[in-house]
Protein 1
Amino acid sequence: MSVRISAQERDALYGRIVLRLNGIGDVETVVEGRDWEAAQRLGEEFSALLRLVYTDLGWGERSSSEELTLSTPPDVMRHAAGVLHEIAKAERAIWEVRRQEADEELGEVVQVQEACERILGQLDQGDR
């Protein structure tokens, strides 16, 4: 079975992989702490993400708008997609909370603006 993704999906996946690769130093930390289970998990995670990049996505910006057929082995692709899915799910939850907080803050700002407009309007009428 061949897996195809759009150019936009490629760019989104690539961007998130590059962000996740910022944590590759965690491998050294867990090895120094002799946490072999975490070292194995991180090693598998980064290995799958790197393999997806160097096999299919490529490094850097892409100028092509064509679909891309992925040739990374299915087990590696499944692992990489699972990791990225969990990351995206967690990030989405954070952004949903932030959006809700921003909506609440905006509501308060609008209320202050409207109250001040009403106060200023009443003061202006009193000056006449």
Protein 2
Amino acid sequence: MSELAELVGADHVLTDDSVRQGYETDWTGRFTGACEAVVRPANAEEVAAVLQWAGANGRKVHVQGGNTGLVGGSVPTGQGPAIILSTLRLRDPLEVTGRSLLAGAGVTLGDVQRLAAQHNLVYGVDLAARDSATIGGTVATNAGGIRVCKYGMTRRQVEGIQAVLPDGTVVERMSGLAKDNTGFDLAQLLTGSEGTLAVITAVRLRLSDPAAESVVAVLGVPTLAAALEHAWAQGEGLQAAEVVDERGWQEAGGPDVGGTPWVLLLESDIETAELPDEALVAVEKPDQERLWWFRESQSEVAQRIGVKQKVDVALPMERLDEFTDAVYAAHSATIFGHVADGSLHVELLESGEDEVLDLVVALGGAVSAEHGVGRVKTEAVVKDRGEAAISAMRSLKDAWDPHGVLNPGVVFR
């Protein structure tokens, strides 16, 4: 550990048991694993030095940002002596240049959003953990969130990247050129790679014009198909379409919408919104934030009522109701999610994750919509993608990280 202290400074090699515990257990409390130390480098050069040290000393490296993940992807898996490499000090750069934003991997999503707003622009990715989740983590997991129906997943926002390979080599392409057809796009390859190929240290992000002034509406719907009809009625003005089941809505203390199985929250351009008469409508910002709170509190609500397993999946639009009906028939659960992009969060109050994931595969869905594979879905992803695709991915992992230093046990079984 003294050698690591020379690389990053003694104050940034954390070995005390009580300090390490906050890093060794994920947000859900479901996944934990011991490490020798938490190491907090301040720049790409220090990251490179730490990875070189790890390779030379037989240590595994688990990369961790804000530790808001839900699939155990950033805590040790027990596959050899390990350290956690925290990216929280990688906060440079943080600046807007033209219609792009440069951010160190440790900058939070919320800080990126606020800086973009200062320039009358927006960053198109948003999620409830915005003030804890780091940009590096959201890029590494290709995060989705509540604005995918308007802006797309994180991958669509990434214009450039700086990263450190397992052997300590720093690679960078941050020019943000609109046309750049010179070989493999490493930024896109590393987006969604879950820290298995390299440590992302900085990114260049696309910014967009702000959406039109919006209205937020809440209404009860009998089915997810009905929710989708209301969402599509908004046309290009749709900014978000979220659903919460009746139990989750009631547990959060949401306003009465008539006792329907589902509650739909719509955000749409105020000039073009097509809302039914029975919708509860909010135009003023404080009222909108209050309605959004009932949706954004759902993960915490599930924790409070005793969630055992949190499952994040995507389904073909036409099979959403078939999926949820089958889940409710077999399991005690609450469900919420992003109906306009077919992404749902199933909060199981008992065991049953494997059965739910098998159902997803059978219905032609994806076993992970936005949280990633982590260490939870290494079996399910094989059923989803197939042995040949996983073998191709594994060949990339083996080529870039032949000694298996980075995030062992994540993505691959």
Protein 3
Amino acid sequence: MRLDAGIRKHGFRKWYERELLQSHAHLALAFLCVIGVFAAVESAMGGRSWNDRAVDGFSTLFCAAAGLWALRRYVYLLMRAEAVAQQADCPGCQTYGRMEVMRADTLGEGVQVRCRHCSHVWHIDA
């Protein structure tokens, strides 16, 4: 979800919470993929046919690829949420997270926001 759409729909604090939950769900998926890699490698070590070993090798590669994707997505979502959260303090009154989106950049990676407390306007880059 784009930054401006997420903040408009849920508010900043709920958007931030959802981003953290989503990123940690990807971390849990990466952990499960590591377990899958270990299980597939152990299964491939058994003295069975080459066909079974090929299936186990494919399972190992699939779990490794899915785990790397999930880990990369975890880091991306976490860093994005933290970068936005560090800019969520109003420069005028230092109120944290009480803002409304005025407009978004064309790519949706940055937003212009206004403080609900003092009406100060500033820009947040994702």
Protein 4
Amino acid sequence: MRVGVLIPAYRPGEALIRIVSALAASDVEAIVVVDDGSGPAYAPVFEAVRKVPRVHLLRHAINLGKGAALRTGINHVLCELPGLGGIVTADADGQHHPADILRVASRLAREPDALVLGARLFEGAVPLRSRLGNAVTRLAFRYLIGERLLDTQTGLRGLPRRLLPHLLAFKSRGYEFELDMLIAAKHRGWRIVEERIRTIYEPGNPSSHFNPLLDSVRAYVVLLRFAAISVLTAILDNVVFYIAYTSLGTLAGSQAAARCVAMVFQYTAVRGAVFSSRQSHRVLLPKYVATVAIQGLVSYAIIRALAGGGHVTLLIAKPLAEGLLFLAGFLVQRDWIFSSARQNNAPEATITAAGKAS
């Protein structure tokens, strides 16, 4: 399979020239570099890159963010490079060794139906912000998405061509684009595999444009969408329940009314904003309604047990029951309702070890 490389670049150093030159000396089919509004001061770097064989240089007039730069490059590949079966995205700051970029490209060529991640082990002299950031995101991703990955923040990724059109629809423009990518791959049934790569950081990591506070918040917002929607759903559910109970005076009728209203809101929200599912309503709705019905019956039983026995008031029993069922409801939605069947019945994630750094 013919594979290209896509490099988004913002105010790059000489490392970009070295990376592109090394890739041009390999059998990489094309190298797409996106100048993400770096400005006139960096024109000499991009002019040197432009002269390298097989390089396609694209430009943003202003800095739009890494996600926007990746989308610009992906669009160019889809429109102008029809012969490519996939692309490898790499960073411009020298953190990805050319040999590792080619290793990921080779893995993508061998497994064209998988999203390939270049996985760092974060060994040696790694900046604390990078080590902690990846550890926290890895744990959150494991829970919220259901994938056990070594490196969720890696910018070195092999993307199959058939996945590229889906990525163009993303609205994210910054580093959160890469988390959106993993979520979309998971819930469209794409395998995610990992290829071990070197962990390379300059002292103090001066070439990175990753803002540890702002960009982490943006990335984690992607992972907190379900929690936010669930809180809003719970508020809506409880408000409708108490209004209905005041009017009807029956626990069963009030519970049914509240659950129906909350169901419509949550289904619409989580289908697109959390799980990025594009499966038809015909497939999703029966499973979702069945889950809500079962969860409603269990919640009803818990509320009756707590409030009926005089242990707690109804005002406490209702949110307590829903809180107990929150985790179970999320796991069912994550792994059954909104998750497509995996392609080729492949395992969740596999990893291949790379050779030692030279």
